[in-house]
Amino acid sequence: xxxxxxxxxxxxxxxxxxxxxxxxxxxxxxxxxxxxxxxxxxxxxxxxxxxxxxxxxxxxxxxxxxxxxxxxxxxxxxxxxxxxxxxxxxxxxxxxxxxxxxxxxxxxxxxxxxxxxxxxxxxxxxxxxxxxxxxxxxxxxxxxxxxxxxxxxxxxxxxxxxxxxxxxxxxxxxxxxxxxxxxxxxxxxxxxxxxxxxxxxxxxxxxxxxxxxxxxxxxxxxxxxxxxxxxxxxxxxxxxxxxxxxxxxxxxxxxxxxxxxxxxxxxxxxxxxxxxxxxxxxxxxxxxxxxxxxxxxxxxxxxxxxxxxxxxxxxxxxxxxxxxxxxxxxxxxxxxxxxx
Length: 340
Fold this sequence. Notes:
Layout: H1 3-34, H2 59-88, H3 94-118, H4 128-153, H5 176-204, H6 210-218, H7 224-227, H8 231-255, H9 263-286, H10 291-316, H11 321-327, H12 330-339
């Protein structure tokens, strides 16, 4: 194994572990919200309840504090990833750029989390400000995972992403899927943001039965966060159909000899994630959103997003068959580590 190959393998391995830790931290953050533990450290940040060592901490404090500690670990790992990227790859390599963006969005995660605590948008706060913060938090999380996915998927691609390929009428010779990607990305981000608001409504206004939940959703006198829950399944239907079209278009391009190497595998993973997410969404509705299902729903949403971004990388950052084969499982390995 050459020095260059060994360096790339070491960087990829560390990036996969970083992805695994990030996914775990994200899911734990959802547990903080779903369990009502957001105020476990009071309105203090970065200290917990104004002190370093906690005396007789409550369960809520332990949940919130552990989330902060693991978030700090994730921050250190992302910082290390940037340093390793600059040591491992030459100037101008796209892995450097996307590792840098991963750090930017990681700092954004910390800023949004601090804002939720300092502005007391936690626990039983049912304001629209909190809803907007939660939506922004989810969008930033998607950008964070997307940047890290691109870091993984482009470690051996020296030409970088050809972003003009996302324009619906650009480079038609590259296949149908390239022209479907931009709406797919935007729709998935919107779907995730609406899901964050719907999850907040489920946490703050739990229903005792499915019939009661439907009645709350349809009542004009219900809190706005309850009525906004209806938007999420409506958006989900449209976006999931579009994502299935993307997967089908990838298979069509593959049969026509136009699909980039690795794209078909990611399209299959995307399809699996879509069906898993729809199933979990239906179970959440029927079973009144138990915490375990909420966490699983968020994890699969993140895996779906990773698959979509990786598919985009395969389409917009073409490479040789051998290189693509080496990269095609990059972020998938990390996601499998967490899912298992």
